[in-house]
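Appendix B, record 7
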Amino acid sequence: MKADVLVIGGGSAGLAAAVSAARHGARTVMVERHGMLGGMGTASLVHTFCGLYRIDGERPEFANEGIPVEVAERMAAATGGSPVKMGRVWVLPQHPVAFAAIADELIREAGVERLFHSELVALEPGWRARIACRGETLEIEAGAVVDASGDAVAAALLGVPDERAPAERLQRPAYVCGLQGVTGELSGLELGGRIVEGIRAGVLPKAAMGMHFRTSGRPGEVFGTLDLSGEETGAYDPTDPACLSAIESTGREVARAVVDYFRERQPGWEQAYIAHWPARAGVRESRRWIGEATLTGDEVLAGATHDDDVAFASWPLELRETNRGPKLRYPENGRAAGIPAGSLRAKGFERLFVAGRCLSCDHEAQASIRVMGTCFATGEAAGRLAAGSGSLQEP
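Structure tokens (predicted):
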């Protein structure tokens, strides 16, 4: 198979990259390990689009035009929802089921060829990729590659150095599940107090401390979000299968324990049950590429700009280095920082681009640029750059 642009990963960044490349005339193939697109916003049930809007505005003002706006408008039309201000930031509630459908529509309209249930297993400069699905392999010759895997998978397969924070500083993972049957009020203070009581009584595990709940916007449906330490098997390593396996098992175990506990003790939870597990836990940080430029947290806080900016970072540094909630650091005067094209170009390689949470930045900047609204913008930019970098034609 031949493609002008091969996109690795179908999360928010990969989705935008593939659509952007195809709209710019490139024959585009996308590889996605799950059976749907959207990444954290579908497979991990993350139900809020963050990073779409500028900070501190009296009204929601988009930070990036193009695909971020298009996805937001389609989501609002699908759910009937609208932006909500939380402290100093605006967010857009989204529903994973609606997002999966919107992603399918965008890909179909753009003419992207998608390969679900497939993973990149080998990559040779040039570019020649090997894709695996259920024990079968497929060779793809591509003019350009966009790594939107979230884990800088292409860097690992090429054997090149990558950037990663020490295990103790990595952003902690989240586990989100869907609930039905809850009729009581979702008072965060009251439910948090109940969880503390359960932990002190030895009925709930200490890991339950990080769980909170939010309505989905659909009748009777609630999302429960649990922040985990990731240290169930030792030091947190989001690329280690034993660690990832423990996160998944722990997430389900703790969520079940909390819902069972509330069903017996909390009014309005008597009929509550877990209706939907995520396809995978939400990993917030992993490997990052080393690019021609590296965006820093200091630049994000200063609202810095660059001559080759292709997108804006409009989310605070949301540092989740423990499972005890975020520490937020806001840019000066709420200014959105520019994300340079150099941070989307892999250092030492031609026609290899990166987008999303694994683009070239430091640990602090990654705490801002990893959110889905910004990933739409960097993905769109990477797809545009890849489409303009060369093409292959079928003989």
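Remarks on this record: The two ends are 11 Å apart (CA to CA). The chain is about 30% helix and 25% strand.
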